[in-house]
Amino acid sequence: MLELLDLRERGGRLEPSKLEIDPALAETVRGILQRVFVEGDEVLLELAQKFDGADLRSTIMVSEAEFAAAEAATPPELRTALDELIERLRDLHGRQLPPEWWDERNGVRFGEIVRPLQSVGCYVPGGRAAYPSSVAMTVVPAVVAGVEEIVLCTPPGADGTVTPAVLYTARRAGASHVAKTGGAQAIGAMAYGTESVPRVDRIVGPGNAYVTEAKRQVAGLVGIDGLAGPSELAIVADASADPAVIALDLIAQAEHDPEARCFFVSMDPALIDRVTASLGVAIASAGRREIVDAAMHHTKTVLVRDLAQAADVVNDLAAEHLQLVLADPETFLKDVRNAGAIFMGPATAVPFGDYGVASNHVLPTAGTARFSSGLRASDYVTVSSVVQMTTDAARHYSPGTTTIAHAEGLVGHARAMDARTQDDPA
What we know:
The protein is of the alpha/beta class. It has helices at residues 23-39, 41-52, 64-73, 76-93, 132-145, 164-173, 183-192, 209-218, 243-254, 269-283, 289-296, 307-317, 329-333, 350-354, 391-407, 411-419, and strands spanning 3-6, 101-105, 108-116, 119-123, 149-154, 177-180, 202-204, 223-224, 232-237, 261-266, 299-303, 321-325, 341-344, 381-389.
């Protein structure tokens, strides 16, 4: 039976999930990162043997022969579907780059230039499943942004290989290199560089608790996209919703992760009862049953007075995915402030976004949608201000700017600006 939170009378605020840092895990990750920094490839080989059962002494990096074999081993219909996914993401992310711009005023020419990062690292998890879609989600926006070198790390299988579909997607999406390494050691390899794995400027992509903690510890040395927690879904529905379909949506989210968090929010008690009943039926035939059952322990139904209170719940949760199964989702959308990605209407299942239909699936979790966004092409560029002044412009601005500098006790600042009020060197 799902836990029911009845907020109609008592109100109350729901807390978003939070990333809990396990001190023991943090210390383990710190040790792994230190070893990668000092020992390089040797640690990657050792830990691949220990955690993946893989002997990588021949090569850590995927060879051209392996890429060719992966393409041949990927079924044609899957190749076509992955190619279409990549094209959808190219179109989506091509709309996200900030423009360069210039203006001129009072003798000051100013603007912003946009430059791609030189190198990025993309982490793609393994373990429970292979995720070629995550390859596309992380690599394609980097290619669109113009990044020169794209390194992808993913754990190998026990036979030392990477799933063919993952390698096929990496090559088609535009990855420069693929390294057979996972976990905290992969993050360390991309942050510090090893004999085989190039050092990068930014690391993106989801992973387990060790990967997340490693990203936290190297943040600042390299950029990161964020710290990924368990996957999340909030559904807001009214009497127009089909309870059997809602049940399938909850299961689709639950099968991601035993720690997945799902919330079904409605002002209709009868709909909540019907969804709960439908869920019991649908779970009986669910795949990944052990994972789904575990995630259901974190799934809650939330009964609210009206859509205004539902919007408060949604904004408090700041969920990774928000699904609006409402007769009028457009009106409700106006009150939504915090959500990673929003899926509107009865036909718009969240998994469409997981496979690149108008959304990237690398999204903020653990309440971080309050201040961050999903992965975008703009995350792979830097924007620099550019300023060029004439001597007349310096004379125009210097009285005010030097006054502020003196007020702050920065005499050197004032003198440097005053020096520019002399005759134009040109």
